[in-house]
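testing teh design pipeline on a random one, pls ignore if ur not involved
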């Protein structure tokens, strides 16, 4: 099923927001700056401790997209950055295997010439027939 255009939301991660600032205050400040705020959530670690990241969910509009271009000031604080949440790629495992193979190829191509000459002398000495001295 597809969502209607008016139901779509924009998610923004706001960084560097102090833990002392409540989500209600953040939502109020964003609304005062004409951002169409739907919800604001404080992010937590797996053990439940709060971190300085806040998820802001905005109604989709042109002003909502401006949050990435012009980061807001929340409760008078500057230095706040906004970024889109990361999406996992389906073929990420295949990409890492390809990167590993490319790295190994580069390493093999840039080995010093000494190892090549050592291999050549070993091959030459292996091909020389051995003369056995008999008495």
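output:
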């Amino acid at each position: 099923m597809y969502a209607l255009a008016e139901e779509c939301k924009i998610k923004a991660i706001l960084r560097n927001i102090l833990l002392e600032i409540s989500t209600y205050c953040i939502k109020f400040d964003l609304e005062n700056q004409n951002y169409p705020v739907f919800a604001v959530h404080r992010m937590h670690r797996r053990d439940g401790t709060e971190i300085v990241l806040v998820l802001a969910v905005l109604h989709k509009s042109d002003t909502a997209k401006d949050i990435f271009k012009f980061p807001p000031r929340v409760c008078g604080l500057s230095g706040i950055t906004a970024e889109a949440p990361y999406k996992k790629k389906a073929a990420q495992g295949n990409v890492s295997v390809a990167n590993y193979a490319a790295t190994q190829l580069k390493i093999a191509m840039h080995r010093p010439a000494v190892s090549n000459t050592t291999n050549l002398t070993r091959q030459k000495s292996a091909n020389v027939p051995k003369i056995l001295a008999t008495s």
